[in-house]
Design goal:
TIM Barrel; 11 helices; alpha/beta; single chain; two-stranded antiparallel sheet
Length: 318
Amino acid sequence: MKVTQYFEKAKGKTLISFEILPPLKGGSMKAIFDTLDPLMEFKPPFIDVTYHREEFVYNKRESGYYEKTAIRKRPGTVGICASIMHRYGVDAVPHLLCGGFTKEDTENALIDLSFLNVQNVLCLRGDARKFEGKFIPETGGHKYAIDLVKQVADINSGKYLDGTISHGEPTDFCIGVAGYPEKHFESPNINMDLDFTKQKIDAGGDYIVTQMFFDNQKYFEYVDACRAMGIDVPIVPGLKPITKKYQLNSLPRLFFINLPDELVKAFTKAKTSEAIKEVGIEWCIHQSKELKKKGVPCLHYYTMGDSETIRRIVEAVY
């Protein structure tokens, strides 16, 4: 079933979804199952599976020169989606990236996903590679997420890259896109960022999942601004608890978000790692309850492999 159909079927009830990371290369599905098994009692209708672009490593050769080699540290998104659907009987939402993929790669992935009866995708540009100052698209790939959305919309209408295919079988993907309550860091201001988001929706996006945030007011203001722009699709809040002290600095730096003064002060007062984790959990519970009370379509939790923490939060909210 499509993500948007789940929202319609819920008739205003706030659903729950989880997002997982593929295991590192050499790992197994056990890590995924260990994360999801404790969470499935909450009956999430769908699970997001992230994708990570390739990274470059430099291997020293016998000549003394270094060879640049591209590797994927977390492969297997398509296979993981199939395993999740088979084991739990829920829908999987694979992430599609511009970075590291050609248009042909994307089309082949969409064909494989359609054969597996995966009906949902989340279209993202992706991040720049490490040590690159800006995002550089793959040769023959997409530069912006809107172009990726358009490609999925094309294949939904039976339009394939091979122009000789005159009667291609249409796919039927529900298309999710990203939203940024505190704006994307590359956008000059929130209004232009909203305009970019509207373009993705107009191109075929069916719903929005937001970047993590820690001030619910930012989310509420973002939804209001989207509605004022004519964006009327469901907007799903993305949530992640802070559980370690170093995240006070790393999360704002990596995700370009702000932390409320009240939260920072609470962390400052916490003297042990256990106390810090409790502050983060309680804050996320408070966020979740307020968002649920306001009737958001879904609470989307970034698990980061920490099912114990996410379980405690969801149990307190539901």
